[in-house]
Amino acid sequence: MSQEITATDERQRSDALVEVDGLKTYYESGGVFGGDPVKAVDDVSFDIRRGETLGLVGESGCGKTTLGRTLVRLESATAGDVSYDGTDITTLSGSDLKEWRSNAQMVFQDPDSSLNDRMTVGEIIREPLDVHARGTRRERRQRVQELLETVGLQQQHYYRYPHQFSGGQRQRIGIARALALEPDFVVLDEPVSALDASVQAKILNLLEDLQDDLGLTYLFIAHDLSVVRHICDRVAVMYLGNIMEIGPSEELFADPANPYTHSLLSAIPDTDPTTQMEDRITLRGTPPSPRNPPDGCPFTTRCPAKIRPEKYADIDDDVWERIEVFREVLRERARADRSLSERAKEILGMETRFSDLDEVEAETFDDVDVPAGVQTELDRAAELAHEGSESDAREHLRETFGSECDLEAPTHHEVSEAGRRSLCHRHKSEHESPAAFFEGHSVGDR
Ligand SMILES: Nc1ncnc2c1ncn2[C@@H]1O[C@H](COP(=O)(O)OP(=O)(O)OP(=O)(O)O)[C@@H](O)[C@H]1O
C-alpha cells in the first residue's frame, strides 16, 4: 500500500500536541562574504501526539538538535509553523513567549556542561521558578525539594554543587530543572548518551515513570537506535534536514520502508544469527553539506536503491555502483577546501591534485567490465575535466546517469495502515518499491 499524502491528512487522524508544518531552520553564514545558509532543518512536517514519545534519529549533523531546539523556541524558525496546543509559537515574542516557555522544556545531552557549576543544585533547579516568579520564596524552595525527590535525589542535596555528583545524578538534576515549571512537552536531547550503560537504564526508567505520572509528551533525540526502539512509540528518521520516514517504532524497525531507514538499521550490529553479512548495507561517502544539499532527493548521492535512468536499467549492479562512486568522488573534490598553495599553483598553471582524474577513473572501474555505451560517457566527462571544468564533467554525468532522484524532490507516501510515511520516489506505482529492490539486488558490504 502506498499513497501520496499531505501533512494535513495525518493531523486529522491524531490527537496532536505539537503540529509542525513546512518547518525550516537555517543558520545564516557569518563573515563579510556571507555565503549559503546551513539548511539544518529543511521543510519538515509532522505531529507529536499528546502523551507519546516520538524518537528522532539520524546521523550526526542531520539536524536533530536544531529541530528540537526550534520546537522549544531556543532557535527561531526560518519558515513554516510550529503550533503547540493550537497556538503558533513561531511568532510569539516578549511576555507571551516567556509565558509559553513554561510549557516546553529541554533536557541536554551532557549534564557536565549544561549545569552551572557555580550554583548549588537547589539554585539550578529553582532558577526557572525565580525567572517566572512562581510562588513565594518558601514555596519555591519547597517545590525544589519535591522535585529532588521526584527524580530520585534527596532533599539534603539542595546545598551541594553539581561537581559533587555522578553523571547519572547530574542528569537527574537536569531533569528536575526541566520539570520545575510543570511542562507538558519535553525535548530530551540524547539524555543518556554520555552515561554508562547501567546508569542509562536507570535514567530511562525514571523518564518513563515521569511520563506516566505527569502525563508528559516527549521528543526523544538519539543516535542509538536500540534505545529508541524500546522507549519510543513512534520514530522519525532524519537525514540532511529532512524526515525520511516516520511511523510506529515496531513497524519501522521490523519492516523499514525508506532506503535510508534500511541503511541505518542494517548498520546496527545484529544479534540475530540468521542475518548474513551480505545483508548489511554500507553507505558510501559522507552526507552532503547542508549548505548545498543535492537537488532532488536529499539521500540521492548515497542511496543504494536509487532509480536508474531507463537506458541504463540493465547494466550490472557493480558497474552502476562504480558510476555512483565516481560521481561521489567528483562531488567530494568540489567540496574539499583547496589550500592556498594549491590555489596559487593553479593560478600559476602548475599541476595540482586536481589533475589526477584519469587515475581516479582507472582505479574506480579497475575490476569491472564497463559497457561501451557507459565508457563513451565517462570519456566525455574526463575530456570536459581536462578542458578545465570539473563542474561541466559533473553536470555531464548527472545529465547522463541521473534520474528523477537527482532532479525532483520526492513527496511523502503513506506506506502502512498505521499511517507510516516515507519520502522516496520508489513508492510511486511505476517503480519497484524499496523493499522489493533490496530483496532483488545485492547491495551488501563492499
Ligand atoms: N549555531 C549554529 N550555527 C551554524 N551552524 C550550525 C549551528 N548549530 C548547528 N549547526 C549546523 O547545523 C547542522 C545540523 O546540526 P545539529 O546539531 O542540529 O545536528 P544533529 O543531528 O543534532 O547532530 P549531533 O548528533 O552531532 O548533535 C550541522 O551541519 C551543524 O554544523
From TrEMBL:
NCBIfam families: oligo_HPY. Keywords: ATP-binding, Nucleotide-binding, Transport. The keyword Transport applies. Residues 385-401, 409-420 have a biased composition (Basic and acidic residues). InterPro entries: AAA+_ATPase (IPR003593), ABC_transp_ATP-bind (IPR050319), ABC_transporter-like_ATP-bd (IPR003439), ABC_transporter-like_CS (IPR017871), Oligopep_ABC_C (IPR013563), P-loop_NTPase (IPR027417). Belongs to the ABC transporter superfamily. It holds the Pfam family oligo_HPY. It comes from the Archaea. The keyword Iron-sulfur does not apply. GO terms for biological process: peptide transport; transmembrane transport. Residues 287-296 have a biased composition (Pro residues). PROSITE patterns: ABC_TRANSPORTER_1 (PS00211), ABC_TRANSPORTER_2 (PS50893). Residues 18-265 form the ABC transporter domain. SMART domains: AAA. Gene3D superfamilies: P-loop containing nucleotide triphosphate hydrolases. Residues 281-303, 385-446 are annotated as: Disordered. One of its GO terms (molecular function) is ATP binding. This is Dipeptide/oligopeptide/nickel ABC transporter ATP-binding protein.
